[in-house]
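User: I'm new to structure prediction. If I give you an amino acid sequence, what do you actually give back? Let's try with this one:
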Amino acid sequence: MIEIHLDLSGLPVIVSDTAGIREPSAPVEREGIRRTLDRAREADLILWVIDAHDPTIALPPELRDSADRVLQVLNKADLVTGATSAIMPDDMIAVSALTGAGLDGLVARLADIARERMAPNDEPAITQQRHRRHVADALVALDAFLAGEADDVLR
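Assistant: Good question. You get back a string of structure tokens that encode the predicted 3D arrangement of the chain. For your 155 residues, that looks like this:
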């Protein structure tokens, strides 16, 4: 699994690229798929990437309970014909990893979903561990000051 941390329109998100879900042929592959399914159960959003060569749109049984958290993405959109595009659901995003077509739309849709699902507030997100540590240290110092222990804090 590959995992990256992104700033998506000012919102901190983690994107994980996991093993595909298919019938495993080896024990190592079976373990990868098990981990993928575990990760999918914990995910706020699942990108179900579908190959335009084989546009099977149905989710596998293991993900059907998560259907409300799935965004379908059709990859290889450069290969899509009129017949294929006619069967695409309205909420499916078509992209081409080869040409880059549709990627801006995918990123915009992900940002919209993140904004919708994250609790609205006016406070900035603290995305860096170092910043969180400094804020925690400042809170300790403020608590000490309010408790009348300012001299201890300043030393």
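You can read the tokens as a compact description of the fold. Here is one thing that stands out. The mean pLDDT is 83.
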